[in-house]
Amino acid sequence: MKFIQAEGKHIQLIRDLAARSWKSAYSEILSEDQIRYMLETMYSEKEISEHLKQQHYHYYLLMDEHQDLFLGFLGFEYHYEPETTKLHRIYLVEESKGKGYGKKALEFLNRQAGEAGDKRIILNVNKYNPARAFYESQGYTVYDEGVFDIGHGYVMDDYLMEFFTEAD
User: Fold this and answer.
1) What is the pTM of this model?
2) Can you tell me the distance from the alpha carbon of 19 to that of 35, in angstroms, rounded to the nearest whole number?
3) How far apart are CA 123 and CA 76, in angstroms?
4) In CATH, which of 3.20.20.70, 3.40.630.30, 3.40.109.10, 1.10.10.10 is domain 2-164?
5) Domains in the chain: boundaries
6) pLDDT for 85-139, tens place per residue?
7) pLDDT tens profile 17-65
């Protein structure tokens, strides 16, 4: 697997990968209207473009270089809090799941966060998303939970999880 740092020319690809992965990840958890709303706002060309302009926010595309296929992407932000990287987005297309790519993506993130000087990685995961078990299998633990108003009458009902890249 190869990690390619995303640039402006990759925005539509990120949007396409998000739409493909969200259909399988959230169709049992969120309404079709909420999925559409979140994709239109959180994955708009403007939103991703703004992220790419930020010094500490990075997107990486995950690619199977043998088949020349894009598998998914990561979006994360160094120094979100002191010594903390926030994993904002990690999505794999349905046909890529269960093949070890998610684990490799988190290992890549751990290295990146450590190289940036961050010792902790945090993320939010929907309380009903089976991905929570995956994160726990990779050493993440729940440290809190929250309900976040995202507008248009919708909320994100999440567990907040963390992973420490170095032992204290």
Assistant:
1) 0.94
2) 9
3) 9
4) 3.40.630.30
5) 2-164
6) 999 999 999 999 889 999 999 999 999 999 999 999 999 999 999 999 999 999 9
7) 999 999 888 999 999 999 999 999 999 999 999 999 999 999 999 999 8
In the block, residue with structure tokens 């199977």? 64
Q: How far apart are CA 44 and CA 88, in angstroms?
A: 15
Residue recorded with tokens 């998914």: 72
Encoded tokens for 104: 């490799």
CB 107 within 8 A of CB 162: no
* Residue 59: C-alpha distances to residues 74, 96, 105, 135, 154 (Å): 5, 18, 12, 19, 26
What pLDDT shows up at residue 167? 47
Rounded-to-integer distance, Cα 157 and Cα 139, Å = 22
Q: Look at residue 126 in the predicted model and tell me its pLDDT.
A: 95
* CA–CA distance, 140 with 98 (Å, rounded to integer): 18
Long-range contacts of 24-31 (CB under 8 A, 24+ apart): 24/93, 24/94, 24/97, 25/91, 25/129, 25/131, 26/126, 26/129, 28/128, 29/126, 29/128, 29/129, 30/126
